[in-house]
Design brief:
Layout: H1 6-16, E1 24-27, H2 34-40, E2 45-48, H3 53-61, H4 66-74
Parallel strand pairs: 1-2
Length: 85
């Protein structure tokens, strides 16, 4: 658990400042609607604990794809909408 504000408030502040920082949520919460909220904020990944380490590696690699980075820099791909590997 984050000490102050939580992940959603941090992601919201990043987006308000127009910072294109890849955000990945990892949660143990089973609260309904969290994934949708994360997607709305443009996150690149959402994992629920327990998760498979291979799934984590795939999510972390996603924003590092050359196509994704090039598209974001050119303004063609919104955050969180990178093509699959």
């Amino acid at each position: 658990m984050m000490p102050v504000g939580g992940g959603f408030s941090v992601a919201h502040r990043l987006r308000e400042q127009a910072l294109e920082v890849p955000v990945i949520f990892i949660t143990a919460s089973k609260q309904a609607g969290l994934r949708e909220m994360a997607n709305h904020l443009g996150t690149v990944g959402f994992l629920e604990k327990p998760y498979d380490p291979k799934e984590l590696l795939a999510v972390v690699a996603k924003p590092c794809q050359p196509t994704c980075l090039t598209g974001r820099q050119a303004g063609h791909l919104p955050t969180g909408q990178c093509p699959p590997a």
